[in-house]
Amino acid sequence: MDSRTGLPTVGMVGGGQLARMTHQAAIALGQSLRVLAEHPDDSAALVAPDVSLGSHLDLAALREFAARCDVVTFDHEHVPGDHIRSLAAGGHTVYPSAEALRYAQDKAVMRQRLSDLGIPVPRYLVVPSDDVTGPDEVVDRVTAFGRDAGWPVVVKTARGGYDGRGVWVVRDADAVRDLVTGFEPVPDLVLEELVPLSRELAAVVARSPFGQAAAWPVVETVQEDGICVEVVAPAPELPEDRAAAATRLALTVAHRLDVVGVLAVELFDVPVSSAAPDGLQVNELAMRPHNSAHWTMDGSVTGQFEQHLRAVLDYPLGRTDAVAPWTVMGNVLGGPADGPGAAVSLDERVHHLAARFPDVKVHLYGKGYRPGRKLGHVNVCGSDLAELRRRARLSAQWLGDGVWADGWSSDEAATAEAGGDR
Amino acid sequence: MDSRTGLPTVGMVGGGQLARMTHQAAIALGQSLRVLAEHPDDSAALVAPDVSLGSHLDLAALREFAARCDVVTFDHEHVPGDHIRSLAAGGHTVYPSAEALRYAQDKAVMRQRLSDLGIPVPRYLVVPSDDVTGPDEVVDRVTAFGRDAGWPVVVKTARGGYDGRGVWVVRDADAVRDLVTGFEPVPDLVLEELVPLSRELAAVVARSPFGQAAAWPVVETVQEDGICVEVVAPAPELPEDRAAAATRLALTVAHRLDVVGVLAVELFDVPVSSAAPDGLQVNELAMRPHNSAHWTMDGSVTGQFEQHLRAVLDYPLGRTDAVAPWTVMGNVLGGPADGPGAAVSLDERVHHLAARFPDVKVHLYGKGYRPGRKLGHVNVCGSDLAELRRRARLSAQWLGDGVWADGWSSDEAATAEAGGDR
Ligand SMILES: Nc1ncnc2c1ncn2[C@@H]1O[C@H](COP(=O)(O)OP(=O)(O)OP(=O)(O)O)[C@@H](O)[C@H]1O
Ligand SMILES: Nc1ncnc2c1ncn2[C@@H]1O[C@H](COP(=O)(O)OP(=O)(O)OP(=O)(O)O)[C@@H](O)[C@H]1O
Ligand SMILES: [Mg+2]
Ligand SMILES: [Mg+2]
């Protein structure tokens, strides 16, 4: 309890953009997020006053941090379960628990558990590293799986992957051999069929220790090269019953895995079959605010960062209604370092974006520039979906690349484009 | 320019709630607000990492602060004009300028200038302190003004008043004598007729150095005991032509006084007359984010804090459309220290508010408790105005007093009240 404000203190392990935006939400609730960051230049450390520097792998640092918080939660999945269990054993309140978080940390454990719960997942096979004698045996296992389930095969590292790193699609035994010779050492692997998905969806919910849960509308997520580039809320032309099934599924996962905080369930939209009776299969789980719900910051009565705080504080949850017919989120990814717009400063980019699209909401993370890095996102709300998608795409690309993909120039057209109606 | 982010740095003089909420908005723009605060426990100092401690009256402190900012702006009106001129003379960019800010600092100067511009104001008389030999002469002047303009008379200190402190309504010569004997010394005064207003309005706009301006919908502000308790956006049943006139008037003031940043024009809604051809008279001006536009944080595409930043950075301004048919803001004022709810902690208050009204947005300032002090505000958006007003009032009172004015108890009714539709 902060004696100055009479309010509890939430601590977040990890100083990335999720912590940054959680701090923004904490301010409204009368609080200030306490952050354990690795570097003083981390995204959240640039904007929050109460930052401890330390590694999420260092139990002593975690303990010292937790001692100054009423609740501890996470910006990422990388805190070892044993450390979290130690904190809990020491009397600290930590959400989500180590037991829940396991299923967001390890795709092998997650696949197994969801299957046990009868939740539809792609056909898969876990290949634990200590179950194979070496690369050759991995090749044999993948080849056997491919023969059985059909090629291509999706090979994933069980732990540590993100933004598509740690996910490979292999077409045949030769490709498997090429991939596996790069492993040093061989990690735990999950093999999956390449799902004939028509698109990807996400069902995001929040759940409190009290057991209350609230779901946002189901969204469509668009990935390119394994990384999310766009989210459309709600998912266009998703039949009501499929949307309801997706939400039910996410609520079931939250309940059965005893998740506290935001839970994002990444889904594949697939043909109805016995392996996917509702036309849905779970891809993976995230137990923290998630990219697929960044749209809620401007598009919903309660944004995911506030909701995550409410959940871990065991406050009743906020309304999750959309505030506009459509919201489109575009991820800002750092463009090529030698691209034609590389010389355009971020300041100029924001300036010209504001000039062209006065209705686009910008969220920048203060992160150093690196090609492909997530530097921010934009949201735009309204009623004309095609137009919103155009704006979000153009805006995100411009902020990332310094290039308007449609050739727009601020010199030629000094006037703003009228905003979409609401 | 911040070398880490490639973005300019805005510094705000004053560490109150306006700086706090401006920091929140700065985060989205990739920035972190630099704050000059008097105390480490100031509202903004609790949530921003880059705080200098110092007085806004100390020119050396202001100079040192400005040297580390690309633009300096203000959380309040109390920085002496000469100090601001010194900063500008030293090459610092300061918005609004001393010349503009004068009209928000001194009601006598403001009344005079607006009259000169032909903008309707209440009938008034300035009584400069060095124009009167002592209290007796003040009584004579007020009595003469009352005889002329009619009783009661509104007596205001020209400078330093806020939340109705520094504003008195006197009914007759005896009351004037009582008031004036309390003055020590006699301040510069403005005498005004008591305007037969039907209600109060505010027209809030923002303007950039480039000259671009954007206006939010005109709102109704409700004051009790001289302090704003509620704002309704847009002002109910305001005829379109009167709303347009109010907006035009605010844009004219912004333009003619060369205001940069947010400008709030407090207005009286009065019968049409030769002294008020549009049924409007200006009460006062604020040149910073203002209580009458707190609703924009949840109720408009662009909130006033972001817009103020855009304006002082000379970025193009954001859209000012409302996101819902109605938004109601309720101010949270500290209740009596010995009231029946005084023992209910702020944490419990937030908790129960969330339980009862999951659609109400809370904004708390982290300020120490004091009866009558503005501790925060709530916003609620939707389509049923009467219901929104009920929710905002009850919520703000509950947060301030620890008492539900309608007797609701969380024990009896554990379920939330369904939110208003949008
Ligand atoms: N079995 C599969 N069939 C088809 N496509 C798949 C399959 N598994 C993964 N993908 C594709 O690869 C993307 C990344 O996979 P996954 O979400 O497992 O990896 P990640 O690196 O953990 O991603 P994230 O950034 O979401 O954490 C998916 O969004 C999907 O587009
Ligand atoms: N001439 C007038 N006639 C009628 N009512 C008046 C007049 N002047 C002021 N008032 C009332 O007193 C309130 C406070 O006046 P004013 O805005 O001048 O004071 P303030 O202390 O500067 O307030 P603020 O908190 O807005 O800065 C007004 O909102 C209005 O309700
Ligand atoms: Mg994924
Ligand atoms: Mg006023």
Largest interface: A-B, 57 and 57 residues
**Helical percentage of chain A:** 25-40%
Bound molecules: adenosine-5'-triphosphate, magnesium ion
How many distinct folded domains of chain A? 3
The total of helices of chain A stands at 12
- Oligomeric state of the chains? homodimer
Question: How much is the radius of gyration of chain A in Å?
Answer: 22 Å
CATH class of the largest domain in chain A: Alpha Beta
Description of the molecule:
2 copies of one chain form a homodimer. The first copy, chain A, is an alpha+beta fold. Chain A has 3 domains: 10-94, Rossmann fold (3-Layer(aba) Sandwich), CATH 3.40.50; 123-193, Dna Ligase, domain 1, CATH 3.30.1490.20; 199-401, D-amino Acid Aminotransferase, Chain A, domain 1 (2-Layer Sandwich), CATH 3.30.470. The first copy, chain A, has helices at residues 17-28, 59-67, 81-89, 98-105, 107-116, 135-149, 173-181, 240-256, 296-299, 304-312, 346-356, 385-401, and strands spanning 10-13, 34-37, 51-53, 71-74, 124-127, 153-157, 167-170, 189-193, 199-207, 213-215, 219-224, 227-233, 261-269, 280-286, 326-333, 361-364, 374-382. In chain A, strands 9, 10, 11, 12, 13, 14, 15, 16 and 17 form a 9-stranded antiparallel β-sheet that branches. The longest helix of chain A is centred in the middle third of the chain and has 17 residues, at 240-256. Chain A is globular, with a radius of gyration of 22 Å. The two termini of chain A are 41 Å apart. The relative contact order of chain A is 0.10. At the A-B interface, helix 1, helix 11 and strand 16 of A face helix 1, helix 11 and strand 16 of B. The structure holds adenosine-5'-triphosphate (2 copies) and magnesium ion (MG) (2 copies). One adenosine-5'-triphosphate binds next to strand 6 and strand 14 of chain B.
